[in-house]
Design brief:
The protein has about 130 residues and is of the alpha+beta class. It has helices at about 10-45, 95-100; strands spanning about 1-5, 5, 50-65, 70-75, 80-85, 110-115, 125-130. The chain has a five-stranded antiparallel beta sheet with strand order 5-4-3-6-7, covered by helices on one side.
Amino acid sequence: MSYGGRSWQERQRRARKVNMMNKVTWFTLFAIVAVVVLGSGGLYLTTKHTETCTVASKERTTHVSDGTSTQQKLVYTNDCGTFTVDDAWYQGKFNSADTYGMLKDGKTYTLTVMGWRNGFFSWFPNILSAQEVG
């Protein structure tokens, strides 16, 4: 018996081929996304560096969304831009509150930072440690 000029076996074979192509397409897309995500995470880890900066001011903000609150500890400097002070599990750093508390306005510090500024996502470099200069 013929269905639209093709046999039932031909239609089944074609359907299996299209299904396989869809699986390959989805797998390829997943692989590309995984490489981009993991690659950018690896790239982030290579941004660790030090800067000598004078603290202008600090600010702690709280955002509440769907009953969940998140805090952001921001440090504004006169000469290096804005930083955040967050825990960094991938660096074994869990003392962000202490680091934030020891930074004083008007003092100069050698900061070990990681990350980059991204205005679209409101990302700031993260201060991993700070040593007062002088």
